[in-house]
Amino acid sequence: MDIEKILALLHKLANAKIITLLLILGTAAYFIHKNLDFITEVTFKINHSSDQQTQTPPKNESNLYSTIAVVTDLIPLQFDIPSYLLITIKNNGPANANNLEALVDTGKAKVNSLDIKPKDRCSISSGTKVSTEPIRVICKVVNAGESIYIYSLLSEATFRSVLITSPNLYSPVIVKDIENRKEEPSGITFADVITFVIEGTAAIAVILIGMYLLGALINFLEKLFKA
Question: CB 3.0 to 4.6 Å from 135: which of 46, 104, 146, 187, for a disulfide?
């Protein structure tokens, strides 16, 4: 191999610096992607999520039962006006949920007002008075794919739990929220943050060192063959 071919090869190797830079960007993007849930939870976490507990039926019996999903919408901030609590109860099927009962325990929060939808199949059994009495809503049927809504104004921005029962459920659905969860430790600890920072710094350092060594090697070879 003559000198010109060697120099041409070195120029190709020099282009590897660009490739290395792209690798840095790609590695950084991959690192962020793998830790996106962590980053989002650290940056934007608000005590707004519910903890839904239930049991799933065996696969060969899953088509015999209803699958209920409960979403609670409550801003955990106290204002001088009543706080709203919107509970969405959706039947994801495949079976209809007959005689569905929703029991909402608002804990120390008093119910100032209450409304439900749809009213043609659902009725309020208790919780209509201004008190801490649990809200009880009974629905004749919630068809597969349909939702019911419980909207209330509370004296405090908190509630304790939501319990959903129906003969068509494999097991009751229990949702615990702010009042029961506020004393629990956050899912993100200081050790998690330190580990995240160390791993990210180490990954960037390894790439930069590799890029520096590659550049030094290319410069050395260029000087060697030009001499």
Answer: 104
